[in-house]
Amino acid sequence: xxxxxxQLDDRxxxxxxxxxxxxxxxxxxxxxxxxxxxxxxGVSPATVRNDMAALEEEGYIHQPHTSAGRIPxxxxxxxxxxxxxxxxxxxxxxxxxxxxxxxxxxxxxxVVARTVRLLAQLTRQVAVVQYPSLTRSTVRHIELxxxxxxxxxLVLITNTGRVEQRMVDCPGTxxxxxxxxxxxxxxxxxxxxxxxxxxxxxxxxxxxFEQIDRPTVSTVLVTLFEALAEQSEERIMLAGTANLTxxxxxxPLTIQPVLEALEEQVVxxxxxxxxxxxxxxxxxxxxxxxxxxxxxxxxxxxxxxxxESVAKLGVIGPTRMDYPGTMGAVRAVAxxxxxxxxxx
Amino acid sequence: xxxxxxQLDDRxxxxxxxxxxxxxxxxxxxxxxxxxxxxxxGVSPATVRNDMAALEEEGYIHQPHTSAGRIPxxxxxxxxxxxxxxxxxxxxxxxxxxxxxxxxxxxxxxVVARTVRLLAQLTRQVAVVQYPSLTRSTVRHIELxxxxxxxxxLVLITNTGRVEQRMVDCPGTxxxxxxxxxxxxxxxxxxxxxxxxxxxxxxxxxxxFEQIDRPTVSTVLVTLFEALAEQSEERIMLAGTANLTxxxxxxPLTIQPVLEALEEQVVxxxxxxxxxxxxxxxxxxxxxxxxxxxxxxxxxxxxxxxxESVAKLGVIGPTRMDYPGTMGAVRAVAxxxxxxxxxx
DNA sequence: TCTGGCACTCGTGTGCGCAGAGTGCCAGGG
DNA sequence: CCCTGGCACTCTGCGCACACGAGTGCCAGA
Lengths: 344, 344
Known about the structure:
Shape of chain A: elongated
Structural class of chain A: alpha+beta
Oligomer: homodimer
Strand content of chain A: 15-25%
Number of helices of chain A: 12
Order of helices and strands of chain A: HHHEEHHHEEEEHHHEHHEEEH
Distance between the termini of chain A: 61 Å
């Protein structure tokens, strides 16, 4: 008995899988007859219809109107992604192409730019890549440059190749020796440290200077801490918006909120932020917090130089997307970008 | 006699102006009756029809099919922009808003980001802003930082606030004194100079060093020259793509090539590059070199800190756009950005 | 438990006719 | 000589009816 119940369930799942696959391919509601024609399920359309009725009862599929085929619901896609689909690995030529395309990059900007274009092209969807975050990276060097008697430029260079610069207006004239001293002491303590840890390490620094120089030192440090803390500098690059035109027939309605969302870096950052670190995350339809993206899915994953993830990247497409393929592409690209970053 | 001919011509122009204005407002072909209703032309529809026939003969307007209203052609818009329209100045509150919005910017990135969003919002179209170009700006400071015995980081800071950094792998260990010397001599010669002039000024520099240090000096200079020359660093920021959804009814066909064009920085750069420096340029429909933008118009103008233009910005919209308003917004924004840059 | 058959539903495509908007042309008036 | 009112003509868009076909749900039988 139990065996037979499981058998039934397995078939229902197979039917669901077939529905998802067909619908993703054809973009049209799929009926029972078409299903048995295209997949050898070994049963008749009538049986499939019964299964479909059950699946609909459970909320996995839904029909737009009576006497139309079925369409997977968000819940259906969710089940498909969780239980029925395998991440489809990239083929060897594809991997070679990825590698080759990314290897040409000359600096961090270029790596990100190439990555996002590659991802958009591979998945034929909208791709999003977050710049390696300041908070996860470490200090490579901090430089102080006197531009004018009371004006200092502060340059922060991270191990991920990112450069931040700030102007500092000092309370008084800054001597070159003091500046050199400050530069040396800051770097001695901060170099190689993670950005969030730096303020703590430099807290006592003003006390090591002459009384008269302390205001200057403090001013510089405050600016440095600001630069370190600045979350708003979480930048994002995106590509492939032209792929949105393939979205659907009910066009402007679908595409407009998506374009709007894509222009809001904040929305995108939060979207990627929801990714639980290294693991690949798939958010389907209404699972997305932002309602403009209620009819799209987001596949995202962390990437990083070495073993830990410093930033995230992902793809935004219609809920009716090729999940295995997309997930494969996202995973492969993330992996290679990580390697590139580790090398440089 | 001559007076009467001119009178006739004036009325035809008035009719053309009215057609353009109405069509821009309603987005529907405009007929003779509607025209006399909405504008007091002082003549009957029949007369207007005759004028319209003449205008069509000359290629300024065109009808989609028999018994439909008229639509301006690219040539018609061109005449309108050249002879019939005045740039519409921004209202005082609008100017205040622009000023206020831009004043909050903290660095160059922020200025550009705010500008592009502002422009998109004001015109309700797609806005494009080019970063102040390296070739037009001058050197504020060049910094050399020893990261490792044979590894130097070169940082180039321009008067527009832009920062470029490069790693330099030196042929041998670099002494701190040599580096300080080099830094001082480079800055003494290059500071305040225009970027393209810098290589010429530094040509003789290696000869002023000890024989043994010359390879290092040359290597650093080569990298510096590369950074100076790098045209590919012409960056662009854009915003307002969501406004494309208001474009038309024949949707995907119109929007797709535009989105594709917008992703190609090269296309955008060339587009802006065609602007003849300070003067405002309007490219209408097929006047645009890139054919994906054949049914859009581009309004662009140079902006700069002080008296000369260092970069360009503009707006891309349907040929059926509000030219006077758009031109007013573009001009006003360019003016204020220039001021902001000059101040900082 | 699966299957084949049957009646039913409902969206889509097609053909038709009509109304409305707009034109071109012509003859007459200032 | 130019403008005007009138008239016939030509399209497009829309509403409507209708038939078609895809797909379903259910039921009886293997």
